[in-house]
Amino acid sequence: MKIWIDGDASPREVKELVFRAATRLQLETTVVANSGMWVPTGNRFVKLQIVPGGPDVADRYIVAQSNRGDLAITSDVPLMSDLIPQGVFVIDFHGYLCTQETIGERRAARDLNDQLREAGLLTGGPAPYGVKDKQRFAQALDQLLTRELRRLATNPPVSPPEITTDDSPGG
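^ thats the sequence. predicted structure below, dont judge the formating
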């Protein structure tokens, strides 16, 4: 299991929680961003991947590099929509696990908010990232990682059998 962080929009508190969990559990973690940002130096489990600027470049990188069973941290609904069908776990910055069952609702809410903003009926940005958001995120992250790492420990991925050659006569 690898962890992918959509770095450009991720609150600092989210990244710090993930960095601590990644180090403790020895999970490879990649922050994907369009520009440089702080990641812990000397931590072999955490790295920063800078991608060229442009719309959705970081998202496309995460989609292309992630695998079934990985975890992505993002609040980008289109990115969630691309990752979930691939079998990637997705937790948003507020600690909500997004699934195939909930992504349609997320898309509908996003579209409605876009329409309200365009009509001038919704102004301002999101509420500041608060203590409850951080607590909910920490709990969701811990629950998912504990569950999945326990599952992997008891049911490791099956590797194909090794192919051996029999050099004995008749073999």
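The CA atoms of residues 163 and 170 lie 18 Å apart.
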